[in-house]
Design a protein that fits this description.
Radius of gyration: 16 Å
Number of domains: 1
Shape: elongated
Mean pLDDT: 82
Low-confidence stretches: none
Number of strands: 0
Oligomer: single chain
Largest sheet: none
Helix content: over 70%
Distance between the termini: 32 Å
């Protein structure tokens, strides 16, 4: 269910950003992918610094 919601929201968001910036849907989609990549890097950096998660590997 989460994938369905994520795909539908990302499509609508890409359309909205593309129309809002008058750059087109392709650039809106690229922006969504770029922002999600930045969020993934931040979340993984925060996860690595969490002591409880690092202890799960032991």
């Amino acid at each position: 269910m989460g994938y369905v919601i994520a795909y539908s929201v990302s499509g609508v968001l890409a359309d909205f950003i593309g129309k809002r910036t008058a750059a087109g849907v392709g650039r809106g989609a690229a922006w969504v992918i770029g922002v999600s990549g930045i969020c993934l890097v931040i979340i993984s950096a925060l996860t690595i610094t969490n002591k409880d998660i690092r202890e799960l590997e032991k």
